[in-house]
Amino acid sequence: MIVPSMTVREIQDEVFNDLKDLENKIDSCKKEFERAVLKSNRYPVVKSYKCQTKRKNIMVVTFTARKRTERRKPMLGFYGIYSRVEGRYAVALTIETKIITIYPPHFFKRYRERILKDDSISNEEIINILFKNSWGFTAAFVNEKHESVYHNFENSAVEDKVRFVAATSQGYCFGENQGTVNIMKTIISEDMLFDNQKTIFSDLKNYFNEIKTEMYE
Q1: CA 153 to CA 180: how far, in whole Å?
Q2: How far is CA 78 from the centre of its chain?
Q3: What's this model's pTM, rounded to 2 decimal places?
C-alpha cells in the first residue's frame, strides 16, 4: 500500500509490483470492453475500470480502441490514486520504459482552475477526467523562455525550478524529474498564452500533434 512516508522511488516499485496482481482483473474487464466496442459506432472507444489490488492500492485501467478491430488488442493505460495530508495524488505508469509520472494536488488545483473551470466536480472525478482526455505528452527540457512563462503564471520564486515542459491535448505542463520519475507541477491552457508566448511552444505542440496523428493512421 502507498503510504505517506514512501519516497517517489518506493512508490514506483509499489505500483509496478501491483501490475502483476492486475492480470486477472484486466482479463475480466477486457471482456466487458469488447462488448462495449461491438455496440459502439463512434471511435475511439475509451473505458476505465477501477480496481483495488491485493496490496490495497487503487489502480485504474483504461482501454482504448481506435477502431472496431482493436477490441481484442486495445491500447492500455494505467494510473493509481493515493492520498496524503495535502490531498489526492495520481501516478501514471509507462510500462515500456518503467517510468512513472506523479501528479500532486497542486497540479489538479490548477487543472480545475485553468482547464475545467468548474468548482462543482469532486477531486477524484477531476483525476478521472484528466486521464480520460489524455493522449500522453511530448516533453522537452525547458529553456529560459519556458521558465519565464512558468514563473509568470505560477508567481513563484526564481529558485522554484522546473526541468521539462510537456505538450498535451489539454495544455502545457511543467515538471521536474528524478531519474525515471516525473513530477508534474502545473498546467496552463493554450488560451492563457499571448501570441508571442505561443511561438515558444509551437515546435513542441507540432511534434505532439504529429505523434497523435500517427496513432490514428
Answers
A1: 27
A2: 9
A3: 0.92
